[in-house]
Structures are given as C-alpha cells and as structure tokens.
Amino acid sequence: MSKNGYSCCQCLLHYLFNYETPLIGSIKSWKIGLLYRAIQLMLLGYVFGWVFYFEKGYQDTDTVVSSVTSKLKGISVTNSSQLGYRVWDVCDYVIPPQAENSFFVMTNVIFTPNQTQGLCPEFPLNETICTSNHDCPPGYKFTYSNGVFTGKCVKYNDTINTCEVFAWCPVESNTEVPDPAVLKDAENFTVLIKNSISYPKFNFSKRNLLPNITASYLRICRYNRVTHPFCPIFRLGSIVEEAGESFQSMAEKGGVIGVQINWNCDLDWNYSHCVPKYSFRRLDNQDDHNVSRGYNFRFAKYYMNNGVESRTLIKVYGIRFNILVYGNAGKFKIIPTVINIGSSLALLSLAAGLCNIIVLYCLEERKHYRDKLYKDVEPRSQDNCADDSDENTLLRNVANPHNTEFTF
C-alpha cells in the first residue's frame, strides 16, 4: 500500500476511534458563582413549585364525564282579574318537564285566551297602521306579523285603523309585562339536582349525593355555602342571590343562571376527598344598551270549543338554569413522572448557558475570559495527521470553558 494510502487509513481510524470529552473550567468570581446558583434556584423553584406541586406533573389526568337530572318542588297561588284565583304547581311552571342539563321555571306570564283562526285587525305597528286599503297589500307579511294581510284597512279602536289579517284572532295585544311578576313566590321553590360523574381512565365514579346523605337529611337540608355545602337541594332565590342578582327583579323579564359544579379531584387521596363544589353566575347579557333583555318564549294550549279548534296563547317569562359540570382528575403514574423529571434536568442546563452568555458578552472582563476560553489551532498536514506527539492535542471550547481532544 502506498504511503498516501496508509496515511489515509490512519486518518480514518483516528477519526472513527477518537473520543472527545469537555474539560471543565472554573471561573473564580463570586459574582458569576452567585448568578449561577441564583439561576439554578429559580429553575428548581419552577420545577418543584409549579410543575410538580401546582401542576402535579407526576400525575396522569382525565376529564370528567357527567349526567344531570333535576326535580323541582313548590306551589304558588295567584289572584288576578285576568286569571282569577289560581294554584300553580310544577306541571304549570316547569317548561318543558324534562330538559338536558337545564331546567326552566316560569315567573311571569301573559295570556291571550280563546283564539280561533279568522279575520281580525292586526296589532298597531308602523307597518300595520293604515288610512286606506291601499296601505294593506293582500298577502303581505313581515317578521312581526300575527297573520297575512287581506287587503282591507279596518278599525282597531276608536282612534287607530290597522290592516286586517287572517290569523289566530284576537291577536296578542297585551304587551305590558306584569310588575311585580305573577309567580313572585317562585323564589321559594326548590330543586333537587342529581349529578353522576365518572373518570373512565381511572375507573372512578361518584354522585353528588354523597354516601353520608340520607333520605331524612334530604327532607330538611337546603344548600348553604357554609353550613350545608354538599346538600343537593337548592332554593331558587338563594341560587340567584349567590349569582349576585335580585330574584324579584330578574323574575319580571327572566334571565339565564349558570349552576356550576366543579369536580376537580386528586385521586391519590382517599375516595371521600373527591367532592363537588358549587358556584353560580348569571349568563345572559345585562348590558345597559341591550334592547331585548331577559328570557321569554310563547306556546299555546289547544282545545275544541263547540267543534271549533281554539287555543290559549301563553307568553312566559322565566329563569333558565343551565347546569354546567366540569373538572379534571389526576393520579400518580410513572410515565409522566419520568418525562417531567427528564425535562426538568434538561432545563437545569440553561443555567450554564445563560452564565456563559453573560461571561462572554456582558461583563467588562469579557475579552479576558474569551482569551482563556478560546484557542486558535493551526491545521496540520495530512501526512502527519496520525502523529501522536503532544503537539497533536487540539484545544477547543464546546459548551463550558475548554474542550481537550485526547489521542491514545
């Protein structure tokens, strides 16, 4: 083999079987040392304080799966010129009887009784007030119409003429919302909220009716943040007050209240430590510039009167209670623990990197440190690349001060 071929083999072997290791340099400066330890302490505080203590980085997590049912109780009695003396029970004021994760309680109502399909004057609006038949094009209807124009302008009362419509007659005319609310006693109604949750990943399930709750306790308890924080029976007035609202004011035009049930659980503790926490807030917009405030809708009760289909139109105002269940559970698992420990150890290397940047670019003595940390090495000829003399040792800096390449 030629001399050049032999030298190339030596260089290849030298490259393949060479080992490099960093040489640790020590900078004798109390300022740099103090900064280095301070950065390390901050990183350790983040790792153990935030990652492991607050975020529980040693746990695997799962999101709650939930189902909710509710049952209302309460009776109200009203006496008005329109309705007379009347008793209201849950069949009257809970609409619909069952809903998913919510319930609606009627607090105010406007009746339009004995409607039948026929011809009658439309309710006075800008689009319906007329002076002649020309103002009422046949077949015309708009968003707020009660029916379809017939083409005639008829008398609505002694002072106003409106277009005649084919509709359910007489059309709804009472637009004044009763004040106070018809069912002002609804604040004393109660609701039993039954909530079942599970964390499938951990095969864990529980109800908000905790094991220590008995039938006799349910008959007397009412939720109270201090005295009965786990009682599942809530007084409606108390729910609205907890949300920072006045029930009587809200009952007039209605609204939406959120009943929040928080199931954040640490399953490394005993089963009994996983308990619900209730909170309440108003969900509908109550901005002063909001034109359409509150919550209302219409429905009708149909019946036959002397062989003619008739109905009673009912416009109801009330409070809708949305039950919002959320939460996460955590339990110790070795895999997330190892991952977070590994990432935390890698994070500690930032301390040395930050100190190197400060030493080399920020301090007044940075030129002096650069001269000590960096060496300029002249290249050797290829023929002498395998020379094992002391002059063949190459000095370089990798991450810390000096990096020495040893050749054996």
Q: What topology does this entry show?
A:
Elements: H1 3-16, E1 19-23, H2 30-54, E2 59-63, E3 65-73, E4 76-80, E5 84-88, H3 90-93, E6 102-121, E7 147-155, E8 161-169, E9 190-199, E10 204-207, H4 215-220, E11 233-235, H5 236-242, H6 247-253, E12 255-262, E13 265-266, E14 277-282, E15 296-305, E16 308-326, E17 328-332, H7 334-361, H8 366-373, E18 394-396, E19 402-406
Describe the structure.
With 408 residues, the chain is of the alpha+beta class. It has 2 domains: 3-57 and 333-406, atp-gated p2x4 ion channel (Helix Hairpins); 63-122 and 171-329, atp-gated p2x4 ion channel fold (Sandwich). The chain is built from 8 helices and 19 strands. The protein has helices at 3-16, 30-54, 90-93, 215-220, 236-242, 247-253, 334-361, 366-373; strands at residues 19-23, 59-63, 65-73, 76-80, 84-88, 102-121, 147-155, 161-169, 190-199, 204-207, 233-235, 255-262, 265-266, 277-282, 296-305, 308-326, 328-332, 394-396, 402-406. A hairpin with a 4-residue loop joins strand 9 and strand 10. Helix 2 (30-54) packs antiparallel against helix 7. It starts with a helix and ends with a strand.
| SSE sequence, one letter per element | HEHEEEEHEEEEEHEHHEEEEEEHHEE
CATH class of the largest domain: Mainly Beta
Q: Segments where pLDDT lies below 50 for 5+ residues?
A: 382-408
Q: What is the CATH superfamily label of the largest domain?
A: atp-gated p2x4 ion channel domain
Strand content: 25-35%
Report Rg.
40 Å
Q: How many domains is the backbone divided into? A: 2
Please summarize the sheet with the most strands: 7 strands, mixed
| Rounded mean pLDDT score | 84
User: Structural class, please?
Assistant: alpha+beta
By DSSP (H or I, 4+ residues per run), the number of helices equals 8
Query: How many β-strands, per DSSP?
Result: 19
